Amino acid sequence: MSSIAHSCGVLPSHDAPSLGFRGGFLAGRLQDAFHFPALNTSVSEARKRVLARLREWGIDEVACDDAQLVVSELFTNAVRHTDSDKVSCQLRINAVALRIEVADQGHAPTEPRARCSGADEESGRGLLLVGALSQAWGVRPDDTGRGRVVWADLPHGRLPH
To answer: Could you tell me if 63 and 98 are in contact, meaning their C-beta atoms sit under 8 angstroms apart?
Structure first.
């Protein structure tokens, strides 16, 4: 079964743990966190920030491209479908995956889930794309219990230094 077909029928995991941001380089993991106002213009700023950081860390271009796309989809959903003033993003690299977490400040009326959109629909495919590019993705409440964190684990390759 393809990743896209699989995503249409599978809900994300709610019990996946947060990786706990500590800043900088900790226990063999590269990490970064940032936030932008919950505005459409912030989506491109988030993509630029992710690309710059991943290149700084020596991540291969395929993983950089995939991460930019995932951040774009998750940031866009948080801006469009929540009552947030800001949207936050955390990046973490370990030996096996790049974890991307995008947090909003307020619940949307429904939980984010992948759906199969009709051919004539202009939107609704973003989480299918996230599912196709990631090893796993899911949704959990943020630390305040008001907002949500949507996370995705992507494979990465570190370039030789």
So the answer is: yes
